[in-house]
Amino acid sequence: METHRRPPVIDMTPEGDFRDPVPPQPGTPFDRLLARLGGTAILVAAAGGGLLLAGLAILAIGILVPLVIGAGAIGAASLWWRARRARSRGEVPPGQVRFVVIRR
């Protein structure tokens, strides 16, 4: 903790109310222009960030959907091929395909 700081001065009336702080000095026209311009810039930056986030979400969905379709097609083809081989070897009667899950 820094010990060189002076404690804040709380200005109170004898009745226990806080006194009004010193009113701020009126800003110059340049200060008002900068305040308005800064607020507008922050609003534009927030809107741009939201659009960027939405664009990234659409891009991710556009990349993941074909990936899921491809993986599902490969998995289905693999199961179909194994069932076909099992039926051709007579391991499973036609129309009855059993899948076994091995837990280790």
Automatic annotation (TrEMBL):
The chain crosses the membrane at residues 33-52, 58-81. Keywords: Membrane, Transmembrane, Transmembrane helix. Residues 1-25 are annotated as: Disordered. This is Uncharacterized protein. It comes from Neoroseomonas eburnea.
